[in-house]
Automatic annotation (TrEMBL):
This is Protein PS1. Pfam families: LGFP. It comes from the Bacteria. It comes from Dietzia timorensis.
Length: 100
């Protein structure tokens, strides 16, 4: 995963690797604008920005979405991250967030 180091979307790290609370075989690192999550089944996936904020409102990895299964990717109308339990999409023209 190539995110541009500190000049990229996540910016600087703010933690060492931490275990995911209440989840086995999962860890994450905090960054200024999001997190990178890792598990043996999902590999390393980054979540940041407005999608990360919505993910937090939904309970992060312990919420209904679970762990991210993709990092952020482009869609015709914005950006999206897929999770074990659905997806969160950010709409470029309006800044709206929609979820599955």
């Amino acid at each position: 995963m190539e995110l541009g180091a500190e000049a990229g979307s996540l910016m600087y790290p703010t933690s060492n690797e931490l275990p995911c609370p209440n989840r086995g075989f999962c860890s994450f690192n905090r960054f200024e604008t999001g997190n990178i999550y890792w598990s043996p089944t999902t590999n390393a996936q980054a979540v940041w920005g407005a999608i990360f904020q919505e993910y937090g409102r939904q309970g992060y990895e312990n919420g209904r979405f679970g762990l991210p299964t993709t990092s952020e990717f482009d869609t015709p109308d914005g950006k999206q991250v897929n999770f074990e339990g659905g997806w969160i999409r950010w709409i470029r023209n309006t800044g709206a967030l929609i979820t599955s």
